[in-house]
Design a protein that fits this description.
GIY-YIG nuclease family protein, alpha+beta
Length: about 170
């Protein structure tokens, strides 16, 4: 992929994610007071969470971790025509936050290929992680929330969005 193609690819993602961030969620009115759903995907902003190093899993952990939704983000999207950065690359869920990335994880390969292509074109990148710790402990609920977030943000490294953005970083 050329540097220009990479920038166009990133800009399309950034534009979509910026519109998803600024879009007002649709709400259904009710005659009765409904409980607030704390797992509302429209209430979760991955860019407003604390950022952690992408290699967080190499740090010593006291236990196996907690259930969470995690986000892989490029903080330095460096898109020339806009200031819209960072971009969200991947969304995942786990019940063991400090163990999930220690073994084999396809996204680690995608991130490596993404970094290498940026390095080839001398384009800066900074891959970080953010975690949403209020995720349900029940797997089925957490996975439902994950799917909703993947649909909302259209994160390019999630297989659900490969048809939208292409599979550029999977076979390098």
């Amino acid at each position: 992929m050329s540097a220009a193609s990479l920038q166009i690819w990133k800009e399309a993602i950034a534009n979509y994610q910026h519109s998803a961030l600024s879009a007002s969620p649709t709400t259904q009115t009710s005659l009765f007071e409904l409980p607030v759903n704390y797992c509302d995907p429209d209430a979760i902003n991955p860019f407003a969470l604390s950022f952690h190093p992408a290699e967080f899993y190499r740090l010593p952990a006291m236990d196996s971790g907690d259930a969470c939704i995690y986000f892989v983000i490029d903080r330095l999207a460096s898109i020339p025509k806009t200031t819209r950065s960072p971009i969200l690359l991947y969304i995942g869920e786990t019940c063991r936050s400090s163990k999930r990335w220690q073994g084999v994880h396809d996204c680690k390969r995608y991130v490596t290929n993404y970094r290498e292509l940026h390095h080839t074109h001398s384009i800066p990148t900074q891959i970080v992680m953010s975690f949403w710790w209020d995720a349900p402990s029940k797997s089925s609920q957490r996975q439902k929330l994950e799917r909703s977030l993947i649909t909302k943000w259209r994160s390019p490294f999630n297989k659900e969005n490969w048809q939208t953005w292409g599979t550029t970083f999977f076979a390098l």
